[in-house]
Amino acid sequence: MRRFKYHAKDKSTGKITKGIIQAEDEQTAGHLLIEQGYVPQSLTEEGTGILDSQGRVTNKDRITFTRQLATLIGAGLPLATSLRTVIEQTQSPGMKTIAEEILINVESGKTLYESFAAHPDVFNGVYLALIKAGEASGTLDLALKRLADQEEKDAAMMSKIRGAMVYPGIILVVVIAVLAFMMTSVVPQVKGLYNDMGETIPGLTQVLVNISDFFANFWWLILIITVATVGGLIFAVKRTPAGRKVMDEIKIHVPIFGKLFRKLYVSRFARTAEMMLATGVPMLDSVTIAIDATNNVVVEDEYRKALEPIKGGKSLSSALKDRDYMLPLVPQMASIGEESGKIDEMLGKAAQVYENELDEQINAISTMVEPILMVIMAGLIGIVIGGTLLPIYSLVSNVGG
To answer: Do domains 2-149 and 161-401 have the same CATH topology?
Structure first.
């Protein structure tokens, strides 16, 4: 199939529109436009390398695209018209390219779900399932709105967690920089001073001198080991299942932040299950997709143990009860929802509780970590100062006496 850029006049409104259409040849492309209610003004064949040139699509790009499409469809505009309007408004080159591909597929007769599914690297399982359910139930605009809302919440929560972790990282960098300066500039001068005066270097100062000499003589080895270690960890986490599993295991067990990540995964599961069920997705499919949405392989493996009981006819609440990494409020609220017939609402309330707790705990951690880090930084710098400046004062006093 070849791709053609077109300018065409809408027969009903007289408005000139432009876009991309896929066809066997230029004549077929013109006929397709006429069938869709347009009068072709110009057709220009496009190169086949559009997918190779597409830029990176960020979460913000996808959220903006989803929100705009939901608004236009909710306003009653036809799907193809809504997509064209979004394409005209989209600033991201990558998102524009993908939206054009989706429009081409929709205009060629494919469903919106099939059109989105052609880009699994941009639209995940949750996204595709909600699109499919929204199309089937005639509530596509609501499904898209739920997607945009949830992605915004998830992005905001991850931003807060990263923010809480960034400050300790900055303090750590400052501490390392100060220590590096002391070890490379001050300690060698203290060593030279003691050698010039023929005095014995005190024990703590000698330890610092040894460390300083090691860094001075083997800095290249330290650099190689550091680069190799960091590069190896990044490769293992991103490219190997075993590496990702180890990193995900660390996330849920690391002190202080482990509890945050557990609540994040539980809230993701409950919120995604709520969206799926509210849109009409069957229970088993909803739970399966919600498990995949947690984005932690260790947690996913544990949650998947609940699928067999559900297939066997057990309720969601009993299948999730006493499951590792599943916090108790979710099965409790699911049980209430099963009795009242509002399981999606109850799961949403459970998610909201954990999201609120995450907000509070992130703020508390940010407040708590600051003084702890300051004490650690003061202690480390104090050791270096104690091993360098105090011996100098003592040496000067002895000489003066």
So the answer is: yes
What CATH number does the domain located at 2-149 have?
1.20.81.30
User: In degrees, to the nearest 5, what angle opens at C-alpha 144 toward C-alphas 140 and 147?
Assistant: 140
CATH 1.10.290.10 for domain 161-401, yes or no, is no
Which three-class secondary structure state does DSSP give residue 143? helix
pLDDT tens digits along 2-24: 667 777 777 777 777 777 776 66
The full set of domain ranges for the chain reads 2-149, 161-401
Question: Hey, what's the torsion of the CAs at 120, 125, 130, 135, to 10 degrees?
Answer: 50
pLDDT tens profile 43-71 = 777 644 333 344 578 888 899 999 999 99
Residue 63 is encoded by which pair of tokens? Answer: 């959220």
Contact 346, 334 (CB under 8 A): yes
Please write down the long-range contacts of 56-60, taking CB distance under 8 Å and 24 or more positions apart. 56/94, 57/92, 57/94, 57/95, 57/98, 57/122, 58/92, 59/151, 59/155, 60/155
8 Å CB contact between 109 and 21: no
